[in-house]
Amino acid sequence: MGALILQQTINALTVGSIYALIALGYTMVYGVLRLINFAHSELFTAGAFIGLALSGALGVAGHPMGGILVGLITFVVIGLAGVSVEIVAYRPLRRTSRLAPMLSALGMAVVIQNAVMLIGGRRPLIYPSFLPSGVIELFGAIVSYKQITIFAVAVVLMIGLELFVNRTNLGVRIRAVAENAETASLVGINPNTAISLIFFIGPGLGAVAGVLYSSFYGVATFTMGFVIGMKAFTAAILGGIGSIPGAVLGGFLLGIIETFATAWMPVLTGGLIGTEYRDIFAFSVLVLILLFRPAGLLGEHISEETMVYKSDF
């Protein structure tokens, strides 16, 4: 029993790492603009396909060290795509009602998904692994080097983001714009620069998650971003959207909930609910958290000044 619980925990941390990386993109954009970037999930997909194209162009398919190069280039390319999306689809609507940017975000999601489909094709593509092969046994559980690598990369990126936001001058500027863009502009901070930066970092992290996800499962499809993106959005809501630690916590918690529920529900229900219903658990969490704690587990500290800014945005 102990080995089974440990095995499921390892599986949960692997899935949770992917959710957390994608959730960071949602939470960063919302923390500054109070906007749900629905195109974020499709940029995750685009990142996976760009990684696939780069692996062939650079001839590094199957090489872990080549995966680092692919990940860096993919981060930059999708980061620039994210900035372009913000400039084209969101910036002109920044001072309008909340409905217009939301509809624009949905439209961009459709555009990106169809662009990926036209370029990459409709059929699932076999994805080369950039992750090291091999397994180790840990107290009766089997841990693959792929799982260790995904968890390690995710943790490094999360810590790096936290340090960047809280310990650097650019991070201070981002937090100032998140608090009040107009006041920040009065002290010499350009809100557009800070907003472009979060649209570069957030999608970049999602793109790395796309490469890791496809490398782990060995397949990429043009529709894979929809469900994964919704789960990552659920993770952001669960932890407290707008909070970077909340996105990380929500990602790992959702991974644990989904993995353990998927493993145990077929046993508890006598096979009535099988593993094919795994998506139900994630979306059930979304409904419950919206009903009973809409601010999320960590929530977001909101001052009176910020409340006024949010209501006016």
Automatic annotation (TrEMBL):
Give the location in the cell.
Cell membrane
Q: Which named protein is this? A: Branched-chain amino acid ABC transporter permease
Domain of life, per UniProt, equals: Bacteria
- Extract the GO molecular function terms from the UniProt entry: L-isoleucine transmembrane transporter activity; L-leucine transmembrane transporter activity; L-phenylalanine transmembrane transporter activity; L-valine transmembrane transporter activity
Is Cell division given among the entry's keywords?
A: no
Q: Which residues cross the membrane?
A: 12-36, 43-62, 68-90, 102-122, 142-165, 194-213, 280-299
Q: Which UniProt keywords apply?
A: Amino-acid transport, Cell inner membrane, Cell membrane, Membrane, Transmembrane, Transmembrane helix, Transport
Entry's family note? Belongs to the binding-protein-dependent transport system permease family. LivHM subfamily.
Give a yes or no for keyword Cell inner membrane in this entry: yes
One GO BP annotation is: D-alanine transmembrane transport
Q: Quote the InterPro entries the UniProt record gives.
A: ABC_transp_permease, BCAA_transport_permease
Membrane topology term reads:
Multi-pass membrane protein
A GO cellular component annotation here is: plasma membrane
